[in-house]
Amino acid sequence: FANAPYCFWVAGFNAAMLWVFMVIEEDVDSKLPPQLARAGRPAGYEVPVILEAINVNSLTTFLVANLLTGAINMQVETLLCTTVQSMFVLGGYTLMFMLPALLLYRSNIRLR
Question: Residues 67-81: what's their mean pLDDT?
Answer without folding.
Answer: 93
